Amino acid sequence: MQTSKVILLTGASSGIGEATARLLAREGHQLIIGARRTDRLQALSQEFSNIDYLAVDVTRPEDLQKMAQHALTQYGRIDVLVNNAGIMPLSPLSALKTDEWNQTLDVNVRGVLHGIAAVLPVMEQQKQGQIISVASIGAHLVWPSCAVYCASKFAVRAIMDGLRQETDTVRVTVVSPGVVESELADHITDTSAREAMVDFRRVALPAEAIAKAIGWAIAQPDGVDVSEIIVRPTASPY
Ligand SMILES: NC(=O)c1ccc[n+]([C@@H]2O[C@H](COP(=O)([O-])OP(=O)(O)OC[C@H]3O[C@@H](n4cnc5c(N)ncnc54)[C@H](OP(=O)(O)O)[C@@H]3O)[C@@H](O)[C@H]2O)c1
């Protein structure tokens, strides 16, 4: 088993992704990180010599292909993909925020599929690799105002479990966080959903807690597939 791995990570410009980039870089892995806010990625890359960054919008399949190509050109292999990028513009369905519904599905579902498409052929050829997707407790439960977000995360679990059953060489892992401190709720435009989130998110884990779970799943031996980890704040009922 390789101790230093070549890892692609999306959504590394804040929250769970940023914490994961820091933890994996400290552990000595080679990272290629992506997001749209490249100023934040550049700062991480300046802090750690083993972090490369690229401008990546996960709704664009070609951006994921570009990440994979960078890893192959520079390091000759791809050991791990972490599909972490996600958005959560919550609202009740009656608010008819159809653009936000579509955006949620584009980023949270199609973004994961674009990541899988970029690395799966490479990993199958290598006969090793690991694809990790960050889902949510919202992949297990549904709440009012969360229907589309939860649908997107249920879909991520379904896609990942299908992938797990289809491959006997690639390790397939879902990491499902409970409430975590991040910028995720900052982009909610619906007033009622935004206010509900203030109470819902009162008890939250630091992002490092999820980074550690991701790091632990990566550290397992090649023959060990950690299929899903749920990490919640002890004091939270959710
Ligand atoms: N925080 C929680 O309570 C919680 C709980 C369960 C699951 N999660 C999941 O954890 C993951 C990380 O979220 P977070 O909590 O760390 O929130 P966050 O701080 O808002 O981070 C989200 C990340 O996704 C990136 N992103 C958004 N749209 C993107 C796009 N189109 N292309 C590429 N990157 C994009 C953002 O980067 P740019 O804006 O720079 O592109 C950012 O780096 C998400 O999948 C989220 O659903 C979070």
UniProtKB/TrEMBL annotation:
- UniProt xrefs under PROSITE patterns: ADH_SHORT
Query: SMART domains this protein is in?
Result: PKS_KR
Q: Name one GO molecular function term.
A: oxidoreductase activity
Q: Which residues form the Ketoreductase domain?
A: 5-183
Under InterPro entries, the record lists: KR_dom, NAD(P)-bd_dom_sf, Sc_DH/Rdtase_CS, SDR_fam
Q: Which Pfam families match?
A: adh_short (PF00106)
Top class in the EC scheme: oxidoreductase
Could you tell me the keywords of this UniProt record? Oxidoreductase
Q: What is its EC number?
A: 1.-.-.-
Report the family membership: Belongs to the short-chain dehydrogenases/reductases (SDR) family.
Indicate what this protein is called per its UniProt record: SDR family oxidoreductase
